[in-house]
Design a protein that fits this description.
Layout lengths: L21 H21 L1 H7 E9 L7 H11 L1 H14 L7 E6 L6 E2 L1 H11 L8 E6 L6 H28 L8 H12 L2 H4 L2 H8 L5 H12 L6 H15 L1 E4 L6 E6 L4 H20 L2 E5 L6 E6 L6 E7 L27 E7 L4 E4 L2 E5 L3 E6 L11 H14 L3 E6 L14 E3 L13 E6 L6 H19 L10 E2 L2 H7 L2 E2 L5 E2 L4 E5 L8 E5 L29 H11 L10 H22 L6 H4 L16 H19 L6 H20 L18 H8 L1 H14 L15 H18 L7 H12 L8 H8 L5
Parallel strand pairs: 5-6, 13-14, 14-16
Antiparallel strand pairs: 1-5, 1-6, 2-4, 3-4, 7-8, 8-9, 9-10, 10-13, 11-12, 15-16, 17-20, 18-19, 20-21
Helix pairs in contact: 1-2, 1-3, 1-12, 3-6, 4-11, 6-7, 6-9, 6-10, 16-17, 19-20, 20-23, 20-24, 20-25
C-alpha cells in the first residue's frame, strides 16, 4: 500500500532506519544483488528503470558472495554505452597505419612510379631499352593498429564474460536461461566481431588475451601512449569504459560518498522491497514448475501460477500495486461527496482464478464475492521492539474493512529479534471471542521477511505465505441454502422482529439463514416471502440454476398441500422444459418423502406396498427394484392421506408413479448396445425421450428398433394370446403420462377422478389392457 513517510535515512525522522546497522546494510546489499539477477530474468525493462550507474554513494569493497551479481549487473549497465556509442564511433573512424613502401612490380603499376629508379635499373641491365619492371611507391592502409586490436580484445573479453555468466544462469534456472538477455549480448558480440576490419584481427587479439605481447594490459598502455589530441575520442572512451568495467562496484547502503557505483536508488527502498518480493516469488514458482505467466508492466505487474497437489491444485493471480478488482465491500458518503471515501491500493493482492471465484449480484450490483488475501510490505524499522509498529497494523485493519477482506499479512524486513529466529517472530492479530461487534475471522499476520543471499529462509517464508493463502482460498465457497424455519408459536409470543434493514418482519415463514460461505458467524433473519430467491442482499443463491426457496417440513397433509403449491412451476405448461420439470419433480419428491418421514409412514411402508398388487402390479412387482417399490408405496400413502382431507390435487402421487415409469424406461434404453447417456440432450434419457427419438431422430430410433426386434415380447395379456402390443402403442400411452406429469409439476391441479384414470392407464388398464408400466416391464425385458 502506498505510504507517505519521510525517507528512512533522514536522522530527524524518529521512525527511520539506523544506517549503521549491519543487518540493514547486509539486507539492502542482498536485496539489490538479487534484484539485478531477478530483473534480468523476468523484466529487462525493469532492470533499466531501477538499476544503473550512480554517484555520491559508497561502494561495496568486500564483495564476496556479491561478486557474481556485480559482474552480471556491470555487463548490462555498460552494454548500451559500448554498443550504441563507442563502437559505432570507432567503426566510423577506424584508426589505421599508412606506411610508404618501395615495391618492384610488373606494369601496369598500382603505385606511384619512381621513374628515376626504374630507368637506372633498366639501364644497368639493358642499356637503351625501356624498363620491364617498375619501381613504385605505395601507401596501403593497415587496420592492425593497437587501437583496433583493443576494440577486438574488448569484444572477445566481454563475450567470454557474458558466456561465463550465461553458463552459471543455465546451471541455476535450466532451460529458462534460453530466454535470458545474456543470449542477446552473445549474439551482439558475434555481429560486431564479424565486421571485416575486426574479423581480420581476431586471431592476433585472441593470442593477446592468452598472454602474448604482454596481454591486454600492455595493449591498453600502448593505446594510451599513442593517443593524440584531435584523434578519434572513441578510443579514449573505450579505455575509460574498460576501466569502469573493472572498477565499478555495487552500491553500499551507508553514509554518502563520492564513489561511482552500480545499484538501485536507496531513496526507493520500500518500493524496491516490494519488487524484490514479487520477483523472488516468481523465481520460486518458476523453479517449482508452477509459474504460468509474468506480467512485468508497471502498474499491471502480476503473476499467474498454480499451487496445490492433485485435485487440490488451483490457479491464482498475484497483483502488485493495483486496486483490488471489484471489492465486495462498499462505503458511501452522505450527502454524496466525490473522493470522500478513501481508496485502497494494497502492495499485493492474491486471489483465485481457477476455479473462478463465486459472486453474488443483485440488480446488477455486486453483493458478495469470494475474498482474497492482502499483503503489505514494510521495509522500514519504526521502533526497536519485538512487535510490529502500530501504524501499519491499524492501516491494514482499516483497509481490510474498506475492502471487505478478512486475511491480511504485513511483511516486515526488520523486526527486533528476527535475526536469530525469523519464523518464531511470526504472530497473528485477531478479535478475541468477547468482541461481538467485530468480524471474528478477520486476521492480520505479522511476518518477518528479510532479504538475504541465502535463499533457504526466504523461500521457506514465501512458501508458507502461499500455503496459508491456498488454505484460505483453495476451496470454493459456493453459496448454499441452509435456511432453518422458526417456530410460528414462539414468534407470535415474542412479537415483531426487525430485519437487517430495520423493517418489521411478518411472523409467517420467518427463518434463520446461516451463510457459511461468509463465515460460521454470519446468520441472517429472513422472510421466505420477501427475501428468499428475491433479494440478493440477503439471499445469495439467487440466480443459481435450480435455486428455490426452502421448504418447511410439513407435519400435516394441509401443510404438505400448502408447500406443494409453492413448489409448482408457474410458467405456461407448453414452455416447460425437461430440466425445469426435473427440478420441480425432484423437490416435490424430497418434500413428500420428508412428510412421510415426519409422520412415521416411511418406516412402515410395507402395508402400502401390499396394496400395489391391488392396483394391477401383482405380476410385475418382483421385477421392480426396492427404491421404485418405495416410490409406488409413497404414491398410495399420499393418495390415502389426500383422500382423508378431500384434497383437490393429487399431483404428488402422480409424480411418484411417473418417476417409476421413467426409471424403468431409462434402464432399458441405456441397455441397448451402443447407446449411452451422451446420445441425449441432458446426458440421460427422460420420460419423454422415447417419443422424441421416435418422431425426430430417425437414425437413433432405427438403432433402438433393431434392438427391440430381437427382444420385444408383445403378447402381454395372459387371457388373450392373440392380443399383441407394439412399441408405437406404448409410446402413445407414455406421452399421455408425460403431459400429466408436466401438469403435476405445474400449478394446474390434478383432481381425484383424473388421478384414478392416470393410475389405471399406468398400472392396470387403458388401451394397453394391463397398463403402460406393466407393458414396459413385460414386453421389454432387461438382459440378464
Amino acid at each position: 500500500m502506498q505510504i507517505i513517510r519521510e525517507h528512512p535515512s533522514n536522522p530527524s525522522n524518529p521512525r527511520s532506519i539506523n544506517l549503521s546497522s549491519s543487518t540493514e546494510i547486509a539486507a539492502y546489499a542482498a536485496m539489490q544483488a538479487r534484484l539485478v539477477a531477478l530483473l534480468l530474468r523476468y523484466d529487462e525493462g525493469g532492470f533499466g528503470r531501477l538499476i544503473g550507474a550512480r554517484t555520491s554513494h559508497a561502494a561495496e569493497r568486500a564483495e564476496g558472495a556479491l561478486r557474481e551479481y556485480r559482474a552480471l549487473g556491470v555487463v548490462f549497465v555498460l552494454r548500451d554505452e559500448l554498443f550504441e556509442d563507442i563502437l559505432p564511433r570507432i567503426v566510423r573512424r577506424l584508426s589505421f597505419a599508412a606506411p610508404r613502401n618501395l615495391i618492384v612490380e610488373d606494369p601496369p603499376a598500382r603505385g606511384r612510379i619512381d621513374w628515376g629508379r626504374s630507368l637506372d635499373a633498366a639501364w644497368a641491365e639493358r642499356p637503351g631499352d625501356a624498363p620491364l619492371l617498375l619501381h613504385t611507391r605505395q601507401r596501403r592502409r593497415d587496420f592492425a593498429t593497437p587501437e583496433n586490436l583493443l576494440a577486438v580484445v574488448t569484444l572477445l573479453e566481454y563475450r567470454a564474460e557474458v558466456e561465463r555468466l550465461l553458463w552459471d544462469e543455465q546451471v541455476t534456472v535450466g532451460s529458462a536461461a534460453l530466454r535470458h538477455p545474456l543470449n542477446e549480448l552473445v549474439e551482439r558480440c558475434a555481429r560486431e566481431l564479424a565486421f571485416p576490419q575486426f574479423a581480420g584481427l581476431r586471431g592476433v587479439a585472441q593470442q593477446m588475451l592468452d598472454g602474448a605481447q604482454g596481454g591486454p594490459e600492455a595493449l591498453e598502455h600502448q593505446v594510451h601512449e599513442q593517443l593524440i589530441p584531435g584523434g578519434n575520442s572513441a578510443y579514449e572512451d573505450l579505455l575509460e569504459w574498460r576501466a569502469r568495467l573493472r572498477s565499478l562496484r555495487l552500491l553500499r547502503r551507508s553514509a554518502a560518498c563520492a564513489d561511482a557505483v552500480l545499484g538501485a536508488d536507496p531513496e526507493r527502498d520500500n518500493y524496491l522491497y516490494q519488487v524484490w518480493i514479487f520477483y523472488e516469488l516468481a523465481d520460486l514458482l518458476q523453479e517449482l514448475g508452477c509459474l504460468e505467466r509474468v506480467d512485468p508492466r508497471p502498474g499491471r505487474m502480476a503473476l499467474r501460477f498454480r499451487w496445490g497437489v492433485g485435485a487440490e491444485q488451483r490457479t491464482y493471480e498475484l497483483r502488485h500495486d493495483q486496486a483490488v478488482p471489484t471489492p465486495s465491500a462498499r462505503w458511501g458518503a452522505t450527502p454524496l461527496k466525490k473522493y470522500a471515501v478513501p481508496g485502497v491500493r494494497p502492495d499485493f493482492y492474491l486471489w483465485r482464478c481457477d476455479p473462478p471465484i463465486e459472486q453474488v449480484f443483485h440488480q446488477g450490483t455486486l453483493i458478495w464475492r469470494e475474498p482474497g488475501v492482502v499483503w503489505d510490505a514494510k521495509y522500514y524499522r519504526e521502533r526497536e521492539r519485538a512487535v510490529a509498529p502500530s501504524s501499519p497494523v491499524k492501516r491494514m485493519i482499516a483497509d481490510l474493512t474498506l475492502l471487505g477482506e478478512n486475511q491480511g499479512t504485513l511483511l516486515f524486513a526488520f523486526l527486533k529479534g528476527m535475526e536469530d529466529a525469523p519464523l518464531a517472530a511470526t504472530y497473528r492479530l485477531h478479535p478475541t471471542v468477547r468482541n461481538q461487534p467485530l468480524v471474528p475471522d478477520q486476521e492480520v499476520i505479522i511476518q518477518p521477511l528479510c532479504p538475504a543471499l541465502d535463499l533457504r529462509a526466504v523461500r521457506t517464508t514465501l512458501t508458507g505465505l502461499l500455503a496459508h493463502a491456498h488454505a484460505h482460498l483453495g476451496t470454493p465457497r459456493m453459496p448454499r441454502c441452509h435456511g432453518v424455519f422458526l417456530d410460528t408459536l414462539s414468534l407470535s409470543e415474542r412479537g415483531t422482529l426487525v430485519g437487517r434493514d430495520g423493517g418489521a418482519l411478518a411472523p409467517e415463514d420467518l427463518l434463520v439463514c446461516p451463510k457459511p460461505h461468509l463465515g460460521p458467524w454470519r446468520v441472517d433473519l429472513v422472510s421466505r416471502i420477501t427475501h428468499c430467491c428475491r433479494d440478493g442482499r440477503l439471499c445469495h443463491i439467487i440466480g443459481q440454476p435450480g435455486a428455490a426457496p426452502p421448504m418447511r417440513p410439513p407435519r400435516t397433509v394441509r401443510e404438505l398441500l400448502s408447500e406443494l403449491e409453492r413448489l409448482a412451476a408457474t410458467d405456461a405448461i407448453a414452455t416447460l422444459d425437461d430440466e425445469l420439470v426435473e427440478q420441480v419433480i425432484g423437490r416435490i419428491e424430497g418434500l413428500t418423502r420428508r412428510f412421510a418421514e415426519v409422520t412415521g409412514a416411511l418406516e412402515n411402508l410395507g402395508r402400502y406396498e401390499a396394496k400395489l398388487g391391488d392396483i394391477g402390479l401383482d405380476r410385475t412387482l418382483p421385477m421392480i427394484g426396492p427404491s421404485e417399490r418405495e416410490s409406488l408405496a409413497l404414491a398410495i400413502y399420499l393418495r390415502d392421506q389426500l383422500d382423508d382431507v378431500q384434497a383437490n390435487d393429487y399431483s404428488a402421487s402422480i409424480i411418484h408413479v411417473a418417476r417409476v415409469l421413467e426409471r424403468e424406461l431409462q434402464r432399458r434404453i441405456l441397455a441397448v448396445p451402443g447407446i449411452t447417456g451422451a446420445d441425449f440432450p441432458h446426458g440421460k434419457p427422460t420420460l419423454g425421450t422415447l417419443g422424441g427419438v421416435y418422431r425426430k431422430n430417425p437414425a437413433l430410433w432405427a438403432h433402438i428398433a433393431a434392438h427391440l426386434a430381437q427382444v420385444w415380447v408383445g403378447q402381454i395379456d395372459p387371457e388373450d394370446a392373440a392380443f399383441e402390443v407394439r412399441i408405437e402403442q406404448l409410446i402413445g400411452e407414455i406421452d399421455i403420462i408425460v403431459r400429466a406429469r408436466n401438469q403435476a409439476a405445474h400449478t394446474t391441479p390434478i383432481i381425484r377422478t383424473r388421478f384414478r384414470e392416470l393410475l389405471r392407464t399406468l398400472c392396470s388398464g387403458g388401451p394397453l389392457r394391463v397398463g403402460a408400466l406393466n407393458v414396459l416391464l413385460l414386453a421389454w425385458p432387461l438382459p440378464n
